[in-house]
Write a structure and sequence with these properties.
The protein is mainly α and 180 residues long. The protein has a single domain (14-25, 34-173), classed as Hypothetical protein af1432 (Orthogonal Bundle), CATH 1.10.3210. Helices cover 63% and strands 0% of the residues. It is built from eight helices and no strands. Helix 1 (15-28) runs parallel beside helix 3 (65-74), helix 2 (40-61) crosses helix 7 (139-154) and helix 6 (116-128) crosses helix 7 (139-154). The longest helix is centred in the N-terminal third of the chain and has 22 residues, at 40-61. The protein is globular. The mean pLDDT is 94.
């Protein structure tokens, strides 16, 4: 018997990502804009929209959408913690480990832990995400670089150079005629 597609239930397994987003929002929502390169509300918006774009591109590219989404949610934690974009990708590494440890040992409840393999995927993507001009053979690294570029463009941020090249590539990949 053929199932009616409208009656099928499908669910993307992203409960760990949702827990990370909740943890990060609780930490970020009351931070001051004082001495920041950009207002904290930008970081919050960028965190949520990047994680959504990351899942979409990950599904299209056949990689784990939850891990891609977690990397996207955490990718600018260096900016949040230091208030500056300077070297934020490299600086983020220690904060990413701290946040994942906090998830694994305090906030995960009955959800699965983030494994060492998953941690490596997340950290490598985050540490390399600012190197837009370098093409990596790691699909998670490339996914995050593409997500960051496309999200900036979709928020109306001036997009040029490697960011622009990545946006054009992504839009073609998903079948959209681009206007930059």
């Amino acid at each position: 018997m053929e199932k009616n597609i409208s009656n099928l239930e499908i669910r993307l397994l992203v409960k760990r990502l949702n827990r990370f987003l909740s943890m990060l929002l609780l930490e970020m929502k009351d931070l001051s804009d004082e001495d920041r390169d950009l207002p904290i509300r930008w970081n919050i918006m960028h965190m949520y929209t990047s994680s959504q774009i990351a899942k979409i591109l990950a599904l299209k590219r056949g990689i784990n959408p939850e891990i891609a989404g977690i990397a996207a949610a955490l990718h600018d934690i260096g900016v949040v913690k230091t208030k500056s974009h300077k070297n934020h990708a490299e600086v983020a590494e220690r904060y990413v480990y701290e946040i994942i440890e906090c998830y694994n040992f305090i906030h995960r409840g009955d959800l699965p832990r983030i494994t060492k393999e998953e941690i490596n995927l997340i950290v490598n993507a985050i540490v390399q995400h600012s190197q837009k001009e370098i093409i990596s053979d790691n699909p998670f690294v490339e996914n995050l670089k593409d997500v960051d570029s496309l999200d900036r463009y979709l928020h109306g941020v001036k997009t040029e150079g490697p960011h622009c090249e990545r946006c054009i590539k992504i839009l073609k990949e998903i079948g959209i005629e681009y206007v930059l």
